Sequence to fold (246 residues):
Amino acid sequence: MSKGKRDRTTQAREIVAKQQAAERRRKVTLWTSVGVVLVLFLAGLVGYTVMSRQDDGTLVTPAAAVDDGTAFAVGNGPVTVDVYEDFLCPACANFEKASGATLQEMATASKITLRIHPVAILDRFSNGTEYSTRSAGAAAAAAEEGKFLELHNVLYANQPAENSDGLSNDKIVELAKSVGLTSETFATAVNEGTYKAWATKATEKFSDRDFTGTPTIVVNGTQLTGPGDTVPTTELLTQTIEKAAG
Fold:
């Protein structure tokens, strides 16, 4: 074989080798790109799943909540009075009208620590709008801004009837503004149901404590009822608190 022919053969082999190497690099690059795309897709899928869970059922416990995250406290007196209420409950509204002001005054005077527990046991009476849960969640959002009692009082002053749609979120936000709750953070929490899962959890704990109806009043760990398992009167409540105080 002549030298020229050998050179041409060598050159041809080098060209083929370069082409094969380039093809291998192309395949590596292709599969690397596919891998990167797959990783990004999976990361996006996980991110979407996490965000979906955050939007639907993530438990956000208010920093202001006490008693295992179930209540909001007013005052720091020596006697602890726990009141479990549902914002749709007519008996709760009656209790607030009769005894609410007295308890709040005693809390302000540091005679008692008043712990109010919003629960949601009457959602079935709001035509599917879950008013009990929504209002409890709104109260939690108000507590985060130091306005729990203000919203609590205005919601009872404007309590909707059972078997109605309850107050809309817009109405809750409007009432909140009347007591100084004007932040976008509060409105967003109400409209997006930030504390919906918390309201459900607080209601579960209410049940776990073997309570079945609202209002439930507990003084220093002992449930207080009137004659015939009725809601205690203001007089009975005051006497019990004074006795507990010694």
